[in-house]
Design goal:
- This protein is of the alpha+beta class.
- It has two domains: 23-181, Jelly Rolls (Sandwich); 184-222, no CATH class.
- Helices cover 19% and strands 26% of the residues.
- It has four helices and ten strands, in the order αββββββββββααα.
- The chain has a five-stranded antiparallel β-sheet, with no helix packed on it. It has a five-stranded antiparallel β-sheet with strand order 6-5-8-3-10.
- It is globular and about 60 Å long.
- The model has no long low-confidence stretch (mean pLDDT 87).
- It holds the Pfam family Cupin_1.
- Keywords: Apoplast, Disulfide bond, Manganese, Metal-binding, Secreted, Signal.
- It comes from Papaver somniferum (Opium poppy).
Length: 223
């Protein structure tokens, strides 16, 4: 009896292991439309792999994190990315980084990373940070961070950072995807191309259409 039970358990564990190993990998892009014609197909994520024999150190190198980003955004921050678009060697490794520079009172506005959890460490300054949980609770988790403090933003949740001081601030973040993606809420809602109907937004936000028209007329800049 014991040997039969051990056999059943062993088979069950083997099947579980097989199922786990057969699951789809995490998505690294917004969507992947199935191609009926192979001639119309591209590799997932649109990237080829270089012959390992041709790889060089520069494929794994980025020299920009020691220089402050140039802040042009009206919200007062700039994000310098270090993902697979900047470091080819990150392809398939499932990780990336970013440097965020904040002007005095600058804001990294509410946004999400649809494919990554983010962990952030403050290098200089004082930041008010937070994220909001999904429906129906929409609970805010917020904290004031000082130099050396660390905070985590779970994958897909809306989050933000704001510099509380009258001096510049700097933070470094690591993200659990080579291509985490970013959706800045204001840009997506009021700066979409083509614009979302003001009827839809007026009803969604319970405001007059003139307010929506004004917000859609603003200059929305990627951060």
């Amino acid at each position: 009896m014991k040997s039969s039970m051990c056999y059943v358990v062993g088979v069950a564990l083997a099947l579980f292991s097989l199922c786990v190993s057969a699951t789809d990998p995490g998505s690294l892009q917004d969507f992947c439309v199935a191609a009926k014609n192979p001639n119309d197909a591209v590799f997932v994520n649109g990237l080829f792999c270089k012959d390992p024999a041709l790889a060089v150190a520069e494929d794994f190198f980025l020299p920009r994190f020691n220089k402050p980003g140039v802040i042009k955004s009206p919200v007062g921050s700039v994000v310098t990315q270090a993902n697979v678009a900047q470091i080819a060697g990150l392809n398939t490794l499932g990780i990336s980084m970013a440097r965020i520079d904040y002007a005095p009172k600058g804001l990294n506005p509410p946004h999400t990373h649809p494919r990554a959890t983010e962990i952030l460490v403050v290098l200089e300054g004082t930041l008010h940070v937070g994220f909001v949980t999904s429906n129906p609770d929409n609970k805010l988790f917020a904290k004031v961070l000082y130099k050396g403090d660390v905070f985590v933003f779970p994958e897909g949740l809306v989050h933000f950072q704001m510099n509380l001081e009258k001096t510049p601030a700097v933070a470094i973040s690591a993200l659990s995807s080579q291509n985490p993606g970013v959706i800045t809420i204001a840009n997506a809602v009021f700066g979409s191309k083509a614009p979302i109907s003001d009827d839809v937004l007026a009803k969604a936000f319970q405001v007059d259409k003139k307010v929506v028209d004004f917000l859609q007329s603003r200059f929305w800049m990627d951060n």
